[in-house]
């Protein structure tokens, strides 16, 4: 589903709620907006993903955003190859594997009163942890049997990708892109000649 995200330049519609790796790819809109161009814009996107990602406490530096854009490009390239039933680019796989090794997980124990619980954390700087989590999400998506069902929105000027829950779904958002297409068709049918 598309959500409105507050960004430094105003409000933008981003497709969110898809598998995390698709949400990452969809951080760039057809109108030229890129949530990875500025730390504030990316922070707004991260806030919407906070239930799935470790959000760094410190503001992201330009080099961090550059690393995130590079990871997104590798995910996009691999996804495009898979959607075309072609081998993925070796450099993209190499970069994804490097990101997967960046912040290794480790188990930990925690006492809650007299009860011990376990969990998993990641070792590494916050941005490295974030890159590893995004690479893991990409790995899960790229190896999912449903990866071949991923579609591009059919609305003009929309570049969003989505994994349809229903085989007849054609737009990333029925409320935004779907409505725009339906209204355009209506005006095309009813315009004076």
Task: Give a structural overview.
The protein is α+β, with helices and mostly antiparallel strands and 193 residues long. The strands form three sheets. Strands 1-2 form a two-stranded antiparallel sheet. It has a two-stranded antiparallel sheet with strand order 3-4. A two-stranded antiparallel ribbon has the order 5-6. A hairpin with an 8-residue loop joins strand 5 and strand 6. Helix 3 packs across helix 4, helix 3 packs parallel to helix 5 and helix 4 crosses helix 5. It starts with a strand and ends with a helix. This is Conserved protein containing a Zn-ribbon-like motif, possibly RNA-binding. InterPro entries: ABATE, ABATE_dom_sf, Znf_CGNR. It comes from Nonomuraea solani. It holds the Pfam family zf-CGNR.
Defining traits:
Jann2411-like fold; Znf_CGNR; two-stranded antiparallel sheet; disordered N terminus; 6 helices; 193 residues; alpha+beta; two-stranded antiparallel ribbon
Average per-residue pLDDT, rounded, comes to 86
Report the count of strand segments: 6
The CATH topology assignment is Jann2411-like fold
Spatial strand sequence of the major β-sheet:
1-2
Give the helix level as a range of percent: 40-55%
Number of domains: 1
CATH class: Mainly Alpha
Ends apart, CA distance between termini: 37 Å
- Poorly predicted regions are 1-12
SS strand fraction: 15-25%
Pfam families: ABATE (PF07336), zf-CGNR (PF11706)
Protein name: Conserved protein containing a Zn-ribbon-like motif, possibly RNA-binding
Domain Zinc finger CGNR: 150-190
Organism: Nonomuraea solani
């Amino acid at each position: 589903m598309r959500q409105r995200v507050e960004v430094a330049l105003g409000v933008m519609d981003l497709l969110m709620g898809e598998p995390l790796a698709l949400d990452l790819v969809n951080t760039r809109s057809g109108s030229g907006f890129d949530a990875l161009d500025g730390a504030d814009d990316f922070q707004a996107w991260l806030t919407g993903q906070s239930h799935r990602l470790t959000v760094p406490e410190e503001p992201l530096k330009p080099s961090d955003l550059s690393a995130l854009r590079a990871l997104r490009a590798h995910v996009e390239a691999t996804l495009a190859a898979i959607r075309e039933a072609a081998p993925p680019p070796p450099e993209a796989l190499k970069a994804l594997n490097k990101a997967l090794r960046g912040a290794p997980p480790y188990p930990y124990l925690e006492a809650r009163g007299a009860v011990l619980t376990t969990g998993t954390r990641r070792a590494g700087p916050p941005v490295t942890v974030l890159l590893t989590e995004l690479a893991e999400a990409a790995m899960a998506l790229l190896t999912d049997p449903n990866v071949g069902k991923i579609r591009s929105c059919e609305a003009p000027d929309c570049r969003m990708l989505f994994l349809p829950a229903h085989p007849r779904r054609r737009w990333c958002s029925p409320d935004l892109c779907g409505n725009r297409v339906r209204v355009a068709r209506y005006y095309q049918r009813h315009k004076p000649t």
